[in-house]
Design goal:
The protein is 74% helix and 1% strand. With 499 residues, the chain is an all-alpha fold. The chain folds into 2 domains: 458 residues, no CATH class; 35 residues. The chain has a two-stranded antiparallel sheet. α2 packs parallel to α4 and α5 packs antiparallel against α6. The longest helix is centred in the first third of the chain and has 35 residues.
Length: 499
């Protein structure tokens, strides 16, 4: 079977078409529910599809994966609660847009940008898998360490006010990420003798509390009436798509590259893309953080482009790009497939069948994404006396369903109350989640890098300046630092004035 024949298999097999469509539909609604992640759906589906043939099982999982990554934007825009970590950055401007009464426009824009971003990622997956996978394979612990540190510098862009307050909340997130077993000594750390904290606090529990419960408590205090939404304009104007196409393509490229790095994913990609948009867009439609369309375009195109990126190391190296592809890799092993360089040579048709499934799932994503907008926008218009108890119940159920632990509900409530007071005193919440996500990546790769440098921290630092990838990342880091120093701009203006 040739490449083009493998690509067309999902299109000519009616069973695969239906399973992909069902998977995308289920994925969208799972992704829109806080706490119900794609990873959770995969873990249930693997046992359910154990007796299936490999192609139907693969088609269903790819559909759920595609729909789930996008679905998180629904609750992010309508309720200011990201349905998935990859949708955290979408809340920054998506929710303010909905508060203006333009939820339909925001959701139509997020759907269109997600589809464009994923098509970009699929295109790169199809034509550049060997090249990108070789680049990802060359990343050492030093490179991942620098990449995570770069991620921490995003707190400046995630802050809508005081940078000091952002740094404080980011530091709090790093501390929370360190709770549990020390990876180097296997000793309990910051557990205060509690056995339940040995496994740490799941960042989704923290996210549900900070964004879900705290928002519900804040809405109880806020007496604003629900805003009537305009849903006459759902499909974005072609002129708007063309206007923002360069930003879409740049953020899609960011998402594909970040997605191709094992251990990262759409959550980090969307944060970096949002930071890129905030730095490069000179005249946004509205100020960032106050409902800028660019603030939805950047993260939504990046997190779906990361889907294609995550498949690159999984298919070419047998290394999962994120938690979703990790479970998908396990499912492939269960069904007798061995993704990696050997499969790319011996069974290349499976690679092209997967590309075809991704392509078809993206088409269904646009169809289901657009047709469900009118129903979803009604959520914002529901009276608070009805919607707030529903959100609280979903937050409790979502927190419990992650690990089936009552303790996670208590932690969700604690972080919900904490988030409420942080919001009142104008402390930004996204840096906390960013710190929790990046903390283990920084620590683990710092320890690995030092071990590879024979235990010498100085050799570890020196290796950063002797490796091309590390040096490029370090230079990007310095650019991010200096771009935050306003005095540089003053000096440049004075220099220009003298000339």
């Amino acid at each position: 079977m040739t490449g083009i024949e493998g690509f067309l298999v999902p299109f000519i097999n009616i069973e695969l078409v239906l399973l992909i469509a069902i998977g995308v539909f289920i994925g969208i609604y799972i992704g829109a529910m806080p706490g119900l992640s794609v990873t959770m759906a995969f873990s249930l589906l693997i046992s359910f599809t154990y007796g299936w043939d490999v192609m139907p099982a693969l088609a269903t999982m790819i559909g759920i994966y595609t729909g789930g990554v996008y679905g998180g934007s629904r609750s992010a825009i309508l309720l200011n609660i990201p349905g998935a970590p990859a949708a955290i950055a979408t809340t920054f401007d998506g929710y303010p847009i909905a508060k203006r009464g333009e939820a339909g426009i925001a959701m139509g824009l997020s759907t269109t940008e997600s589809v464009i971003g994923e098509f970009f990622g699929i295109f790169i997956l199809a034509i550049a898998s060997p090249l990108v996978s070789m680049l990802a394979l060359k990343f050492t612990p030093q490179d991942y360490f620098l990449l995570a540190i770069m991620g921490l510098f995003l707190v400046g862009s995630l802050s809508m006010g005081s940078l000091t307050k952002s740094l404080i909340t980011a530091f709090l997130g790093i501390i929370l990420g360190m709770i549990g077993i020390d990876p180097s000594t296997a000793q309990a750390r910051l557990t205060f003798g509690s056995q339940t904290l040995l496994g740490g606090i799941h960042y989704v529990v923290i996210m549900i509390g900070l964004f879900g419960l705290s928002e519900s408590l804040l809405q109880l205090k806020n007496k604003e009436k629900p805003v009537k939404q305009r849903i006459d304009k759902i499909i974005p104007n072609l002129k708007i798509i063309k206007k923002y196409l360069p930003l879409t393509l740049r953020c899609s490229a960011i998402g594909t590259i970040i997605g191709a790095l094992p251990g990262t994913g759409g959550d980090i990609a969307s944060m970096i893309a949002y930071d890129h948009a905030k730095r490069t867009v000179k005249n946004p439609s509205y100020p960032f953080g106050q409902g800028a369309y660019e603030g939805v375009i950047a993260p939504e195109s990046a997190n779906n482009a990361a889907i294609g990126g995550a498949f690159i190391p999984m298919m070419t190296l047998g290394i999962p790009g994120d938690s979703g592809t990790a479970l998908l890799l396990g499912a492939l092993y269960i069904h007798g497939l061995r993704p990696g360089p050997l499969m790319m040579r011996v069974q290349p048709e499976f690679f092209w069948i997967i590309v075809g499934c991704l392509f078809l799932s993206n088409i269904f994503l646009y169809f289901f994404g657009m047709t469900g907008v009118k129903i979803f926008t009604k959520i914002v218009e529901i009276p608070k006396a009805i919607i707030i108890p529903i959100i609280i119940v979903l937050s409790v159920v979502g927190s419990y369903s992650i690990n089936n632990k009552i303790g996670d509900i208590y932690w969700m409530i604690i972080f919900g109350i904490t988030g409420y007071f942080l919001k009142i005193y104008h402390y930004p919440l996204p840096p906390i989640v960013l710190g929790v996500i990046l903390s283990p990546i920084i620590e683990q790769n710092l320890l690995r890098g030092i071990q590879l440098s024979y235990g010498s921290i100085w050799d570890f630092i020196g290796s950063i300046f002797t490796r091309p990838i590390s040096l490029v990342l370090f230079l990007f880091m310095m650019i991010m630092v200096f771009s935050k120093i306003k005095i540089c701009g003053i000096v440049i203006e004075k220099f220009r004035g003298k000339n």
